[in-house]
Amino acid sequence: MHNFGYVQAQSRHDAIALLEEGATPLAGGTELLNWARVGILQPARIVDISRIEDLDGVEPLPDGGVRIGAMTRLNDVAQHPLIVERYSVFSQSILSAASAQIRNLATIGGNPLQRVRCPYFRADEPTACNKREPGSGCAALAGINDRHAIFGWTDECVAVHPADPPVALAALDAAYVVESSEGSRRIPADELHVLPTRNPAWHNVLLRGELITAIELGGPPSHSAYLKIRERESYEYATVSAAVALQMDGDTISEARIALGSVAMRPWRLRNAERLLAGRRVGSPEVAEAIAAGFADARPLSHNAYKITLARNATLRAIETAARA
Ligand SMILES: Cc1cc2nc3c(=O)[nH]c(=O)nc-3n(C[C@H](O)[C@H](O)[C@H](O)COP(=O)(O)OP(=O)(O)OC[C@H]3O[C@@H](n4cnc5c(N)ncnc54)[C@H](O)[C@@H]3O)c2cc1C
Ligand code: SF4
């Protein structure tokens, strides 16, 4: 591991000033320190944001929503009564991530900024990877791609974003609150990550000097659920996942929001299916038809056509589970 400088910021103002100078924020460190160890990132200076007091906690908002400080640990978010009672899809998505030990350390602001799990991106030896070395190509396109994208990929990159909580946040129409010396801005949850159609080397839209300070959720859905399909029941990234947030009138869906995880470089909203689901009774054949319409633009790679069927079935099951909750 390369040597790096370490500074503890005592305030947002201090942290942002250091970020503008090129320092890298350290939250729980469960990703960042691994990257430094394997050479994915070689930060010259790290600014520890864990001592900034007002970045932690879950509080209700006057409009019926909730604000979560970016430094709040994953387990503290998932177990908070406001989240358990009102946003079960979010709580379930967090509790399905990593292990209890990692969730005690990892933060809700750091989690969406984790990087892709593509084996070529994480390889010890240099290999063709536009995300790791821009312009070098994409070894996964004709190589190991069974866990890769079925939506929004290009020949430049076919990776998926692996995180769970951001999928639930996308289904909840949440927003990341970001601060810099210019002021603050809100980034909708499904717009934080960058598709390779825009730039294969980018991971997210954060600019130098920007700090995620909070996540804001609007009013809760009447029914919600998160379903994660993975190769083993714990300590495993999703093969696919489905987050569903519904407004129900009896057994009929009045409004649906659906986001899929591990199918694209960002949480993938099934907006076409969402429109078709309004007014449909859960359990009717029209629900499965609406979901199928949401997959009209899915494109498999050489080894991952199975993910289309898996994600379609996961979506249907998540809707049925949410409706029963
Ligand atoms: C073995 C293992 C299994 C895992 N399995 C899963 C899983 O199944 N599902 C899942 O979702 N995740 C999984 N994870 C990822 C884990 O959840 C992340 O490592 C963690 O959430 C990152 O949070 P952190 O606070 O430790 O971030 P850090 O490692 O501190 O930072 C990560 C990145 O975010 C930046 N950053 C952090 N906070 C901010 C901020 N407030 N503003 C701007 N930039 C910031 C850092 O500079 C860095 O670039 C796994 C991790 C490991 C090691
Ligand atoms: S899929 Fe993306 S991360 Fe993986 S090798 Fe290709 S460019 Fe790199």
Can you give keywords for this protein?
325 residues; alpha+beta; Uridine Diphospho-n-acetylenolpyruvylglucosamine Reductase, domain 2; Enolase-like, domain 1; 4-stranded antiparallel β-sheet; 26% helix; binds iron/sulfur cluster
Describe the 3D structure.
With 325 residues, the chain is of the alpha+beta class. Among the domains are: 5-48, Uridine Diphospho-n-acetylenolpyruvylglucosamine Reductase, domain 2 (2-Layer Sandwich), CATH 3.30.43; 223-324, CO dehydrogenase flavoprotein, C-terminal domain (Enolase-like, domain 1), CATH 3.30.390. The protein contains ten helices and twelve strands. The strands form three sheets. Strands 4-5-8-6-7 form a five-stranded antiparallel sheet. A four-stranded antiparallel sheet has the order 9-10-11-12. It has a three-stranded parallel sheet with strand order 1-3-2, with helices on one face. Helix 5 (88-95) packs antiparallel against helix 7. The mean pLDDT is 97. Flavin-adenine dinucleotide is lined by residues 24-32, 70, 97-98, 102, 106-107, 109-111, 113-114, 163-165, 211-212, 237. Residues 116, 118, 120-121, 129-131, 138-140, 157-159, 200 line the site of iron/sulfur cluster.
Report the major sheet. Answer: 5 strands, antiparallel
Q: Cofactors and ligands present?
A: flavin-adenine dinucleotide, iron/sulfur cluster
- What is the average of the pLDDT values? 97
Corresponding CATH superfamily of one domain: CO dehydrogenase flavoprotein, C-terminal domain
Which second-level CATH architecture of one domain applies?
2-Layer Sandwich
Succession of helices and strands: EHEHEEEHHHHHEEEEEEEHHH
How many runs of DSSP E, i.e. beta strands? 12
